[in-house]
Amino acid sequence: MTEFWKRFSKHRGAVAGLVILFLIVLLAVLAPFLFPKSPWAMVQRPFLPPFENATYFLGTDTMGRDLASGLAHGAYVSLLVGLVSTVVSLLIGIPIGALAGYFGGIVDDVLMRFTELFQSVPSFALAVVLVAIFQPSITSIVVAIAIVSWPPVARLLRGEVMSLKSRDFVDAAVLSGQRSFTIIWRQILPNTLSPIIVLASMMVAAAILVESALSFMGLGDANVMSWGYIIGAGRTVIRQAWWVSFFPGVAILLTVLALNLVGEGLNDALNPRLSRKGRQA
Amino acid sequence: MNTIGTGEKPVIHPGSLKRPEGEPIVRIEKLSIALPEGADRVFAVDRLSIDIHPGEIVCIVGESGSGKSMSANALMGLLPDLVTVAQGRILLGGENLLKLSANALYDIRGRRVAMIFQEPMTALNPLMKVSAQIEEVFEAHGLLTTRERRQRALDLLEEVGLPDPQRAARSYPFQLSGGQRQRVMIAMALALEPEVLIADEPTTALDVTTQAQILDLIRRLQRTHNMAVMFITHDFGVVAEIADQVTVMQHGQVVEQGTADEVLLSPGHSYTRKLIAAIPSGMANERPAKEKNATGPLLHVEKLSKTYFMGSGLFGKQRQVHAVKEVSFSLERGETLGIVGESGSGKSSVGRCLVRLQDPSGGHILLDGEDIATLKGEALRAMRRRIQMVFQDPYSSLNPREKVGRIIASGPIAFGEDNAAAYKEAERLLELVGLDARAAERYPHEFSGGQRQRIGIARALALKPEIIVADEAVSALDVSIQAQVLDLLEELKRTFNLSLVFITHDLRVAAKICDRVLVMQTGEAVEMGSARTIFENPQHTYTRNLIEAIPGRAKEARIAALASA
Amino acid sequence: MRRLLTIPFALALTVSAALADPVSGGKLDLIVQPEPPSVMIGITTNGPALLVGGNIYESLLRYDENLKPMPSLAKSWETSEDGLTYTFHLQEGVKWHDGKPMTSADVMFSVEDFLMKLQPRHRNLMSHVAKVVAPDDNTVVFTLKEPFEAFIRGFAFYTMPIVPKHIYEGTDYQTNPANEKLIGTGPYKFAEWKRGSYIKLVKNEDYYLPGKPYIDELYYHVIPDGASRAVAYETGQVSVLPGGSVENFDIPRLSKLANTCTTEKGWEYFAPLSWLWLNNRKPPMDNVKFRQAVMFALDREFAKDVLWNGYGKVSTGPISSKVPFYANVGPSYPHDPAKAKALLKEMGYDGKPLKLLPLPYGETWQRWAEAVKQNLADVGIPVEIESTDVAGWNQKTSQWDYDIAFTYLYQNGDPAIGVDRNYKSSQIAKGNPFNNVEGYSNPEVDKLFTEAAVAFPAAKRQELYDKVQAKLREDVPVAWLLELGFPTIYNCNVENPISTASGLPNSLRDAWIKK
Amino acid sequence: MTRFLAGRLVRAVFILLVITVSNFFLIHAAPGDPAAVMAGESGDADPQFLEQLRERFGLDKPLYVQLGIYVSHVVRLDLGYSYRQQLPVLDLILERLPATLLLSLSAFAVSLGLGILAGAMAAARQGRLSDTLISLFALIFYATPLFWLALMAVLLFSIELGWLPGFGYETVGAGYAGFARALDIAKHLVLPAMTLGLFFMAVYVRMTRASMLEVSQMDFVKTAKAKGLRPRVIQRRHVLRNALLPVVTLAGLQAGQLVGGAVLIETVFAWPGIGRLMFEALSQRDYNLLLGVFVVSAAMVLLFNLITDVLYRFVDPRIRVAS
Prior knowledge:
- Chain D: One of its GO terms (biological process) is transmembrane transport.
- The structure holds four protein chains of four kinds.
- By secondary structure, chain A is mainly alpha-helical.
- In chain A, 73% of the residues lie in helices and 0% in strands.
- Chain C is an alpha+beta fold.
- Chain C has three domains: 164 residues, D-Maltodextrin-Binding Protein, domain 2, CATH 3.40.190.10; 108 residues, Dipeptide-binding Protein, domain 1 (Alpha-Beta Complex); 211 residues, Dipeptide-binding Protein, Domain 3 (Dipeptide-binding Protein, domain 3).
- The longest helix of chain C has 18 residues.
- The interface between A and B is medium-sized, with 18 and 28 residues.
């Protein structure tokens, strides 16, 4: 672990990323205490520019809602969407990739054709259609993001498992009488952890971007305040009130940046040799 | 780690001081190369001094981590990032290379000093044709026209003895064999007739017969071109075969220097002596033939075949590779059978079929009379504990995410043994293979290669097998460690009355520990007999070739004779 | 009172048009948003289709901003004393765009055959008609079953477009290739449609009014993003932004640009009125006190000022103030959260959360839904917004699968055409998002609306409509929001872009570009 | 090569067929149907009107019959009629396809070209200021929402500076022809292609840089150095070419994202491509059109995959010669 931290902290960007990420998580967690009022409450005149009013220092949006409050509450939602959808896509991608990689042959063929199917449909378009069809809500957004983002996980896992499978310690496990499930679970998956963690950190970032893009297309959940929603709502007034979409844009930028930096740091720290694989492959 | 345990002084034989007339072409003076902070020692190379004269082959010998390759890289000006020269001089024809500008160095590389590497598989650019890669040497130094370069490349390929130079020139590296690639590398190095050739373990990755050819080639070319050669190797056999002068290194420091004869025949330093003693003699000892079991052999293999189907898939054309063709042999209880062959001989496929990591395509494997070649499912699983395997690569054969105790215990646990008992047994086994019981709580990466191989052996023993298949079990180890592990295997075999199938490419290793030897060539068993018969009276041409190719055999015989005297 | 006030405006309009002499020539770039599926307005009657198609097809009449009929394809008309016979005299020398003459036969074909088959609205109108005859090439006579005063306002360009008989007769109207190569009588001819980019119309040189139209080419640009549409106007790539083509938040900024004119005119015939469907079938919306409480809870002034930038007008009841027979009678509902809370308490509302279905027509409507949600939350009605797209919205409203839903509808010139359909119990039918979707049923209202439609003369109708408006305002079957204002923003060099109660769609016949 | 292409073709057809069928069900699972949407837009409707529409579209038949009819048409390369626009779907798509192809191909070329160039530059100057700057910008572009970047680009280059048109495919009604028209389209193309390309460029910059650093550790690079080759030649001839292989693979895998990203960009820049067509078809429940767009865009992704595969074979002799 100390070794890990040593290598991680060598990556200055990663440390900066970690700090930013920590602050954002803190903001998300403390949002209900920092801004007890609903972020939807219309508290001031519309289009109040930032830094004019001490209470509403980031200004207000088209309807006089506190932007700072929206940003804080939005952090929670955006992170949650990113995190949950990543977990869901890992839950889809890992078993598929592991089974395909471990058993090979016809199993591999079938599972990979299936994966290809999802990669052949333009991913964002598929997400749009899924959300539109199941009607926009947090759940449908999370599911849609997960459905379009698991194939890289499966591909990564398949590759890792295939290379691990040819390692002698897996043969040794076979010889020692362990069953396939045990071998996948105990011998192979623990060794894929580092690349998965690295990929996952970048997937959270990508999911946050997709969520904001969906909101931009008017496919956000209208009941929750997310960064994507604020930009989507603010884009029509970008000329009059740049700050409405500027601040959440910066928030997304920082979060995604931080996640990627952390991902890179993890990559350097966890698999110095395996590093430099495709980011989103 | 930074000091030599014995504190013994280096031995400098007179032969290294009394040299041919004239100036050396290369003179390395008190060269120290510093490692980056946090490495396991301060200097990779510590106050190394070597002279190399034209027409001379100087071998630098040492085990891994001795700093021998680093010295070669320093001479080439190709030290890795973060590694720096701390002091000393490297003189090429009187000019200090360490003081030269980058541009001057580009001029020298390839033209005056050339280099060949260990891994011919990776040392050539996979995306460029062979000819282009040779022509590039001329281009780099702005010599000749395009046409002339092409012609020279062809000539060079012919000179290094490639059978069809025209074709080789048009080929991509992946279309050539390892030996052919190494020839291409040599052609490239010779292109500008350099004064100095650095050969960094150039034959280590090659089969023994190929190795003999490449050594011959280097020697021949060195003579015709009157080059100075700096030859890096870990193999005293190779040293005996090729060296004029020898420098032995340990932990970055010179421990012994002298002519080949001086160092090989009268090693003065204990480390050198240890290294030379660790070389398997290549002389098989007579062993009493194992008495035949009344109930027949423990293992009987009959017409075992393995065929691979390559390039499958929906549309690819299927290609068949017959890796093993109707091989038969038997193994008595307590016997060690060696399976010897070069790469591609099918020896490993035989081993993997025996333990059923692969399914044989044909034939029978009778274990105590039961055919295990076609077992499936639970029956196969139950059989597994009777035949275990020790793998070649000590780094990939242990799961880096499992503690050593768990690695050893997981077999018995998979067969239903109680966890606590299995762990206890694991600790006992660790002690048995010469490790501390506390090793069970540690992860594999905390151990050295030799220790890891011991862990691998303990794991194989955990299931109390009757047969152990050792697939190149010592090939990845340094020679001194190799000897220790071989001794351990021998001892355990006796203790547990194990039968051993020992798969190796190294005839000397086979000679040392095997009762009987099976020689394989391209999937077929060409000869089988007692180790002694095979070595002293080989019947098959291939076997004879193999034995003759063992480097330094002539000298070794003398060394062995001296050692035993 | 209202009529007196509006006359000077009408005068002003004519005067300004007369002041400078119109000049011919030039090209005009407009926005059409969203891209219509077709501009054959005999088949497709959505807003964007009308905006373009209204320049290609004409009806018998046009209407001024007080909904007074003006000549179009009919140069004059008479109504019999008993209100049963309408006689129209057609313009002479009218030619279709393919050069064939337009006659009463074409009108007969359109009215009796083409539109009957394709237009539900037309079928409704014709249910009042006993027969139609064409005594000669230039005359058409409608005979009604009973007096129907609203009839004269049913000849708008899109309620009764005249289509060429010689092209459509005997074919499948929906798939006739002429739907792509449009043939009308209008001032502009169809030239080119580059899907996803623009629709181009060119001047009809053979138009029956000499000298008109003035402009050579019309380009209707398709730009899907609201912000880009604003940019297009700013950079001068388009010079007319029809109502609703930019987001409301952009209007104040754009209208302040140099040489920019803004007008709210041209929507009098449509008279769009917005309201919340309150599903009367379900509790608590079945309770009149709850519905009244909703009215008191809504801050409609805020919506008008902030979301609609002050355009439009807070609605008082079921009939838009632009439509004939409007009256401000009955209870009124200012923003009064206290009163709303009191009413809720009185009825014993249990605080059950309700679903709110916004209108999926862009940002303003989304924001409005959020504001309404906040308004309702303030008086203790928890609301969850249900996002959906146009298809989902249609599905949910027309299948009555909602609690509260936004909508807005055109009133089409007369309460008997565009208002009573939303309140009469005979109009309760699934599968149609424009009828009595709220499920309000009151025999008294049914009777009043039915009588008012056929009462004669107009004064009689006014009396009945006053009564029904008062009654509805008391019952609050739906929560009326705003009479929507869709200002047209245009470069001041464009003269007289809006000359009728239907604005730009009907048509750019009289518009010209200042040199 | 022929065998390879034939194999790819058969696989592509299979994938397209499965996509067709699964999307057919997916789309029909959406609430509302085209008749309801069209009725809704007309502002007035009665049951007779809806019946007419449904019958005309064949929506009154059971779903499996509709599927059968659809698939039997698709295998004959007939994508059916758009309910709403009353035109063959194929015509509608073909009308829009050049725009999308132009956009995504140029974004692809820009991102790959510039990405590799910048990545190679960064790798060659590893640790220096220019490397840090390139890497930083790549990271920022990678983390910026596409649509946000698009809006900012329009704001800056189109509105503030007035250098480039902010939307559309060409200047409408300008009557350009030949070269003038090409130039006009090219001007319109700059902003959308750059915005779409920047994100992917960032990906390729990072990938190229990492890959080159990895390759420069390889033995054959040392061989090249030992030959006395200058660093510039080594970078270009030995390191870059080998480093490109994983980049090309990645580029192929990202084709799906690229075409998907085009939907977003087409909306902001009013680019008349199939991405917008899809979004419109979706909200209008124009089943045939939507399915058609899906099939065609999937075909485009497969095309991109094929291009990168061919590219890969071109770069890597091991695969080219082996087959």
